[in-house]
Amino acid sequence: MNIKEKYKKLKKSNSLVGNLTYFLSRRVWLILKFFISRNYRSSLWDKYFHPKESFQIVTYTKMDRYPLLFKESSNYFIKKHITQPKILSFGCSTGEEVLSIKNYLPHSIVHGTDINKKCIEHCQRNIVDTDLFFYNRLSNEFNIESNFDAIFCLAVFQRTENRTKKSRKKATGFVFNDFENELIELNKKLNIGGLLIIDHCDFNFADIKIS
Ligand SMILES: C[S@@+](CC[C@H](N)C(=O)[O-])C[C@H]1O[C@@H](n2cnc3c(N)ncnc32)[C@H](O)[C@@H]1O
User: Fold this and answer.
1) What averages of pLDDT result for each successive group of 10 residues across the chain (211 residues)?
2) Protein residue whose Cα sits closest to atom 11 of ligand 1
3) Which residues have a Cβ under 8 Å from the Cβ of 46 and sit 6 or more positions away?
4) Does 50 sit in the ligand 1 pocket, CB within 6 Å?
5) Confidence (pTM)
6) Which of 14, 45, 117, 184 is the most exposed place for a label (fewest CB within 10 A)?
């Protein structure tokens, strides 16, 4: 069992010392994170000042997180003879997803959008490529962009607490209507025959009106 698993076990442990250790160390970590991480402070800002627009608060991401989805999408465009697909990474965080898509589809134009101001600033500062574009979800640029051949919505249509808090009987913070309304908007930006790719999601796509 690695340290992470051992630590998680403390949360469910029957001993008071175990529970207390988990509770206190978690609080200390969150306080440290607040001072260390701009992205985390920005997530909290979104959570409290854009509660309706902000879905997943966590900004965790990594390179090549979804190899199967990226490979299948690449195969689809090859089959359809779409040589320069225009792609949106919705909830791109710090840009690793955009870079991964570009690796699988070297001729693509990839747009990344996120509600977290600090994540988008990070992308704009660190990722310089004429085929890659980054803008905030609440910006006018996002409103006017359309004609995407694929929209990736990966680990964005979710709220961690909706899954981890056992006492919670129904979703709060990010609810089904938010999911449905956002997909209605994204659908308008997708070309006919385009791909809408959703993963790590709190709700069922088949339940929404436009499915
Ligand atoms: C867990 S990260 C996922 C990053 C990446 N898509 C991945 O799967 O590796 C979720 C991201 O969604 C962003 N997000 C949350 N609500 C959003 C919204 N309404 N519009 C755009 N991005 C949003 C968060 O700021 C965060 O960066």
Assistant:
1) 78 81 86 86 84 88 98 97 97 98 98 96 96 97 98 95 74 90 97 96 95 92
2) 91
3) 53, 54, 57, 115, 116
4) no
5) 0.88
6) 14
